[in-house]
Amino acid sequence: MADHAHNLRATARAGRPFGVITRGTTNQNRLRKCDRWMVAHPQISSLLRAQLAGPADAAPLALDVGYGASHTTTCEWARWLRTVRPDVRVTGLEISPERVLPPREGVTFELGGFELAGYRPQLVRAFNVLRQYDVDQVHEAWETVIERLAPGGFFVEGTCDELGRRCAWILLNAEGPQTLTLDWDPFELETPSEVAERLPKVLIHRNVPGEPIHEFLAAADQAWANNAGWAPHGPRVRWRHTHAELVAEGWPLVPQRRRYSDNWLTIDWASVAPRA
After folding, report:
1. Checking DSSP bridges between strand 166-173 and strand 154-160, what pairing results, if any?
2. Does residue 104 sit within a domain?
């Protein structure tokens, strides 16, 4: 199982980026599952397409917080977002001065952290960053970002494995966390609950009996087992029937309006949020 006990601590200081330097490793296409999900999300895509108040050439701004030691996934994200809004501005933020890069592929890079370098963006992404922090700093980081979003803005905070085959992320807005999404390669896992090792930091230690996320993953495994008869048709078909069974049981899953190559689900945050 992945090690999530990194326990780095950030200190907020006036005039300085909020965060700590993380390992910063990445791979090509590591975040493609979340990138695809974001451009297909109706509210995110509508926000990107919206005409902004201000100069006639105003375009939405997307910030990638903690992009790490490589520009790769930030530039990939920009390419995905431009399929929705060709003039979207994308900037990567890093608190390590040595990682700040010259502009490339229409993407800029600056020194900054969860304070967002003074910007008020429409969209923020932070992947594989908070998983290296103390869990008690997660909400502080969330609140720091949320209060700096442009009106109607979104923040996506998540975690994935090194090759991007197992992913989990939380969608937040001005009201706080809204949904949890789990996404995995259909040929990667034997059971849905195996994606738990990549849960976001706020949930990774809550996957224990008595917690909602544990109850939900157990229900997903049971529904998966109940639909074993569909296994000869492949894991994607089996998952579609599993997903339908979970909905029939009353789990508030967001409808899947199109078919993807991955197995994935999005569930209302209130159903999996940690108990106090």
Report:
1. antiparallel
2. yes
Q: Is residue 210 part of a domain?
A: no
Report the domain count for the chain. 1
Per-residue pLDDT in tens (0 to 9) along the chain, 276 residues: 344 444 544 455 555 554 555 555 566 889 999 999 999 999 999 999 997 766 655 799 999 999 988 899 999 999 999 999 999 999 999 998 988 999 999 999 999 999 999 999 999 999 999 988 889 899 999 999 999 999 999 999 999 999 999 999 999 999 999 999 999 999 999 999 999 999 999 999 999 999 999 999 999 999 999 999 999 999 999 999 999 999 999 999 999 877 778 999 999 999 999 998
CA-CA distance, 114 to 119, in Å (whole number)? 11
Euclidean distance between the first and final Cα of the chain, in Å? 26
